[in-house]
Amino acid sequence: MTDSLFGRGKQCRSMSRREFLERTIQGSALLWVGEGIARPRAARAASQSQKLAALSIPEWKTVEAIAARILPTDQDPGAREAGCINFIDKALANEDAMILPLYQMSLAALEGHCQAVFKNSFAELSEERQEKVLVQVENGTVSGWPQGPIRPEAFFATVRFHTLVGFVANPSYGGNQDFVGWKVLGFPGPRHHMGGGTPEQMVGKQKIKTVWGDEID
Amino acid sequence: MAKREEFDVCVIGTGAGGGVMIHELTAAGFNVVALERGKSYTTANFTDDELGNLIRRSSLAPHQLESYRAEPKAPSRAGRFNNLAHCVGGSSVHWSAASWRYRPDEFKVLSSEGPVAGANLADWPIDYDELEPYYGKAERAYGVSGQSGSNPFEPKRSSSYPNPPHPFRSASYVIERGANNLGYHPFPLPLAINSQPYGNRPPCMRSGQCANYGCIVNAKASSLSVHIPPALATDRLDLRPESFVNEIRLDETGRVRSVSYLTATGEQREVYAKRFVLSAGAVGSAHLLKLSTSGAFPEGLANSSGQLGRNLTYHITAIVGFWTDELSHGIVGQTGQVAIDDLHASDSKRGFIRGGMIMENGEANPIYYAMNGVSQGLSAGTQTWGKPLKDYLRKFRHAASMLAIGEDLPREENGIDVDPTIKDHLGIPVPRITHTNHPNDIALHHYYEGKMMEIAQASGAKDVWKIRLPGFSDLEKGRSQEGSYHLHGTCRMGDDPSKSVLNRWCRAHDVPNLWVVDGSCFPTAGGYNPTMTIVANAYRVVEQMIREAKRLDS
Ligand SMILES: Cc1cc2nc3c(=O)[nH]c(=O)nc-3n(C[C@H](O)[C@H](O)[C@H](O)COP(=O)(O)OP(=O)(O)OC[C@H]3O[C@@H](n4cnc5c(N)ncnc54)[C@H](O)[C@@H]3O)c2cc1C
Q1: Tell me, what's the ipTM?
Q2: SS3 A99
Q3: Residue B327 — very low, low, confident or very high, per pLDDT cuts 50/70/90?
Q4: Rounded to an integer, what distance in angstroms lies between the CA atom of residue A211 and that of residue B100?
Q5: Residue A30 — very low, low, confident or very high, per pLDDT cuts 50/70/90?
Q6: Which of residues 382 through 421 in chain B touch A, CB cutoff 8 A?
Q7: How many domains does chain B have?
Q8: Boundaries of domain holding B321
């Protein structure tokens, strides 16, 4: 299954891909994904693989570099170590396939900007430069972005959203590898299948077991 | 051809309202067919996957599609705007189980406030005293855990909560401290979650996953855990999941003769019954009535008043986040353990009318918290990504939150009808939402947001921020809201058939054998989570329905 609800057979009847894109953009939603879009369940198996599913190699590198600025690596792991890019690629191949074209158009615009200004790809720029460019993408002032409905602000908000989700969603979706996102948070993993909690744990009087085998307060 | 079967009652929708109807009718000896658009799940189907449940919402309503516009005449766009579960048990499956009784004046908003420009206020045809015994019945059925008398502002009750309250978590004590420091009267939040074994259901396992999750041990009460199993045990319930009702059909005398529904594979079927109960929720019930047009009802079934689909209310949900010095322990426990009701009473001196309740928004969900980092960054004036976002994530264990549910005012323009072009996976035109808030709602939102920030600060919190969820337009510029998780008002009840869709017994004024029993009968929204009022009202209505049916059918 490589397409979303709207792209498949009978379900296509309700709305074409083009119509969907138009409506999404018309809604001028700052976020292309998240609450508003009907999607089937993940092809979870696919998300386990590190093979490219939706993005090209240059696109992968650019998105990975953006994600690394959104959640940088410092004393703790960041987007890179968590594999947020893998999460995003698999989401764009599955539940969020509808917005892949929006991603691709935005990435082309970003590449155009970086080539025009720096004669280099975004992923090759220094981290400082990348941050400066992203500030402009975030506030919509980036130069050379084609006029039209695909706004840089919405692109930025969407990548930020995807990066955050990839960092802390269940690892089976392809991000949060080795639970690094949950470790940064101090989230022990969902309790439902860990026997729940106790009144003592609710007030810090008893340790809480993590899904990776540690204990936390 | 098979012999045409006719049931005593056909119930459409199996959520909070439908569950009571199905249970009581089968217990009284009626043969009931229940048609439910979603699947039938067991606890084994419920996952702890936050992305699927809370963010993508693909788990419990995979086929939900709606459309939204802020104003009549504006073009609509497709999406999933309301937080709904489409499955046996409806949204009672993934609710948070905060269980309240409305205050006496919340049933009499028009007479207590007088008319308000731009709002379509009304009194309920019933009052608190009439509903009071049924609240007791509802609390016993759902096994509400709470401490009777602990909320000094609660209306009088003739029975106590059947279960003791749940213990507090660290964050609950922090909020309690803040509230006490301001002279308020915090108390344990009443929850329809077992604090001890009750009603053949085990006590809560404190997983910190109530809102948006199905309970994997059935400690949380729902139509699925409380009402459907005993109804099935009577052998008088024919439960048909994956049956999407798309038309209600009348006979020549103006009574409902049958409903038609689509199976999962798109096959069209028909069901006949003597009586029909529509419990598809405030969106689903209005949508189905609007889909069911005929010569007598060109604008939707039972719509001689013109009020069908109108007066949709959502509640105001204001949320603030803050960090506590100590660990907050939102990763274990229930929904939230502490509530504050001191600021509820309507007082126009505050710059708005009506009011609401404040409760701990206790569960710590990683994705939800991560997304709210943007709100925090905006409030702190820092960049909403990069190192500040990383620092925000590192404080997850210290995060706490409060939310206020407030009464929004009904507007005639806000409502549900049928989208002229957008269709769902079965080819049915989707429900179209029209919604813009009354200015009173916005003032109320700001007020409670500010008060919750004060409580957080009074607890000692240094960083406090407003959480504005996606799906809301900018509050400062006036507001429209795409969807909600509290839905009421599209088929209001009343004594005057020219101003209401249903009579005081939730029977359609226009159609003698059609009832609508769910959130849609609410003339006004009340200032608490609504479900115990839906459940209590269903008990009130079904009693009358059974009394009458036994008289007529004997
Ligand atoms: C995350 C969340 C948390 C909540 N927390 C609380 C809380 O703490 N306290 C509280 O009081 N309330 C809470 N609520 C609200 C509560 O869930 C609803 O008030 C309640 O479920 C509404 O009951 P209802 O009978 O009106 O409709 P529902 O429970 O929504 O049931 C409607 C049913 O009808 C079915 N249906 C719809 N259309 C059709 C059709 N055409 N054919 C066949 N079947 C159809 C649906 O699939 C559904 O099963 C919460 C809701 C959410 C989403």
Answers
A1: 0.93
A2: helix
A3: very high
A4: 35
A5: low
A6: 383-387, 389-390, 393-394, 396-397
A7: 1
A8: 45-78+98-125+144-211+314-486+524-528
